[in-house]
Structure formats: structure tokens, C-alpha cells
Amino acid sequence: MTDPMAMWHVRAEIAPAILLVVDFGSWYKLDSKSAGSNSSNMIQHTQVSLLKDVIVPYTHLLPTLHLSENTDRPTLLYFKGAKHRHRGGLVREKLWDLMVNEPGVVMEEGFPNATGREQSIKGMRASEFCLHPAGDTPSSCRLFDAVASLCIPVIVSDDIELPFEGMIDYTEFSIFVSVSNAMKPKWLTDYLRNIPKQHKDEFRRNLARVQHIFEYENSHHSSTGAAPEDGSVNYIWKKIHQKLPMIQEAVTREKRKPEGASIPLRCHCT
User: Fold this and answer.
1) pTM value surpassing 0.70
2) Element (DSSP H or E) covering residue 77
3) How far is CA 102 from CA 76, 77, 165, 191, in A?
4) What are phi and psi of 18, to 5 degrees?
5) Neighbour-count burial for 184-195, b at 16+ CB within 10 Å, e otherwise
6) Which of 57, 59, 71, 254 holds its CA 20 to 30 A away from the CA of 220?
7) Domains parsed from the chain with CATH numbers
8) What is the rounded distance in angstroms from the CA atom of residue 138 to the CA atom of residue 100?
9) Tens-place pLDDT, residues 65-111
10) Whole-number mean pLDDT of the chain?
């Protein structure tokens, strides 16, 4: 599911399933159409859970740049997207105002149409780092466009959940910055400028090594052929395989709970 809230009205029916979602962000919010504070209108943390559900990658919109094609990157930090977002995306607006006039930083407002796509290709391939602040939800396809473009992601999203964690280490090719630090004037640009070239080169080599993991079959309009053997589809199946013992344990624990016991439910697994 690209947007978990799209299934809000059948949340009880699908809760026991292993959900494949790109984000958990909106599941924990009250539905915008609901009135009052009726907890029955809330997605419970046991209905979507890292114990049983799988975070999957967005499909990247930009073509893959191979390491052998990489060229000089004169821009320090690049971002393209909507400035104004809701909920956690308010951080984006504050970051924009802090950084829009910083030397070496390009902040462009735009949308994923043909013109915006070409601007993003040019901007990401010319930049050392690509900013990934939270939007309406903690994650977006922008992160995977950065990976495809060999632009080192700078993730400013305290609540983000990422695909295939435990199988890949995002700290090997991404920079994680707390919202509190990012909100300090000049903190982020000073931090990025002080990263040595050899570290940036290593990040970029590591990006090239994981690009295939975020590839679906025909993930880009010019792609042909079957999904890569070590691409997203197979990684999703591997992640599901990892979840099964934990789900079985949660089901077994729930079955032996005595009537009247106050043991918390670990997940809606049945």
C-alpha cells in the first residue's frame, strides 16, 4: 500500500494480515473525517506493527545512475518538492526557510511532472547530498530517487521506518540527522561540509552496491525483463520469511493467555 490510510475503513478486517506498506506514518492518526476522540476510530499500534508487517520501497521515479557514470557534483545539498506539507511535514517548511539562501544549497519547489522529473535528474546528479525531510508521512519516493542517482540521502525524519532493515545497514550510505539538530541555523550545512571526501566516496560506492535492492520489475519506464534476483521482490519475500516465527510466537502467546489476564496484546495476528 502506498498510502496506509487508503485501507482505513477495513482496518479491522486486514489487521491480521502481513501488510506490505511503504510507511506507518498515518496509521497512528485519527481519521480526518472522524469527530471527537473516539478511540475506535484510531488505528491501533497492534494493527500495524514491525513485528508482523513489512516496510517496502517506493518505486523510484528517476533512472539509475551507475557509479562509472558519476561526474563532479558542484552542489552541496539538493531538495525538490512541495514546501508546504501537513503533520510531520511542517519540519520541511521550517527547513526550507532556514536553508533556501544557504550557499551551495538548492531548494526547488515542484511536482513529479515531465519538467519536474528532468529538473530532479539534473539536480540530484549534480549534488553531493539530497535532503529527505518528512512530508505528510515520514518517507517518500525521494529517498529512492536519491539512491538511484547516487546522491547521498540526508534523512531528517525522526519517525521514519525503512525497507529491509536488519538486511541492509542504511548508515553505510545515508546521513541521519535529528529534527532538533536540523532546526539549528547553519548546523546541517556546516556538518555536511565537514564530511571528508573519502567518506563521501565510500558512501557513494555503498549506494551503488545497494541500488539493485530497491529495483522492482520494470521499475522505470525504459526497463525490460524480469525483476532482479536480488531486487525488491525477493527481499520482500525474505523479510516475510523472517517475520513468520515472530508472528507464530505472538499467536501462541495470545492463545495461552488466561481469561481476565491483563497481558498486553503484542499484535493483531489472528
Assistant:
1) yes
2) strand 75-81
3) 10, 10, 33, 13
4) -80, 110
5) eeeebbeebeee
6) 71
7) 1-57+217-270 (no CATH), 67-214 (3.40.50.2000)
8) 21
9) 999 999 999 999 999 988 876 655 678 888 999 999 999 999 998 87
10) 83
